[in-house]
């Protein structure tokens, strides 16, 4: 984590330097300088864009919470009980390859264009990756690992806490991290339909108003939001999976 304090600002400095160079060479309104965008962001952050960012973050958090609440237990049971894996795996394999964005019209017809359809889209993007990652992690545990625990009378909670949880947690966090990028991208798209708040709505609205400074300010905030989510997952992994960093 200490290295990230230095690495992230250094990477951001390089990106902003390239951005500034492109804006200076092109001299086009569509590519404003990062300084102008930063000043615009400072002016409108508390007035409007912070509210849009909170709406987007709330949708991601709710969709992620639902995906974890459903996907993690299902993955544990499928990995631990082969019969359940044979029962549910065909449904997972049939639904997982379907592009989730293709389901958006169906969700909007069933759940409307409000918050529910957007949250369900985030849920569908994350839940299948969680199920498969957790199931594979649990299924990779040798069956012989459980025999001493059974003979000693270990409870189901003890097996979960000392075997299943440590084995599945790293792959679970990795699955969420991989799915998060797709979820943010799709959230941007869904917020352009039937929404008045959200970074996707803010960016597209600024684009339609030909306000490129606000458009870029929204893109920067969306990138920062993604960075914060990924950093949180990295922090969670270092705390919850300490044995991997010894």
From TrEMBL:
Family matches, as Gene3D superfamilies: MetI-like
Cross-referenced SUPFAM superfamilies: MetI-like
Transmembrane segments: 6-28, 61-81, 93-114, 120-138, 178-203, 215-236
Source organism, top-level taxon: Bacteria
InterPro entries: MetI-like (IPR000515), MetI-like_sf (IPR035906)
Statement: the UniProt record of this protein carries the keyword Zinc-finger: no
Subcellular compartments: Cell membrane
Entry keyword annotation includes NAD: no
Keywords of this entry: Cell membrane, Membrane, Transmembrane, Transmembrane helix, Transport
Topological category with respect to the lipid bilayer: Multi-pass membrane protein
Domain named ABC transmembrane type-1: residues: 53-237
Family indicated by similarity: Belongs to the binding-protein-dependent transport system permease family.
Name of the protein described by the UniProt record: ABC transporter permease
Species whose genome carries this gene: Selenomonas sputigena
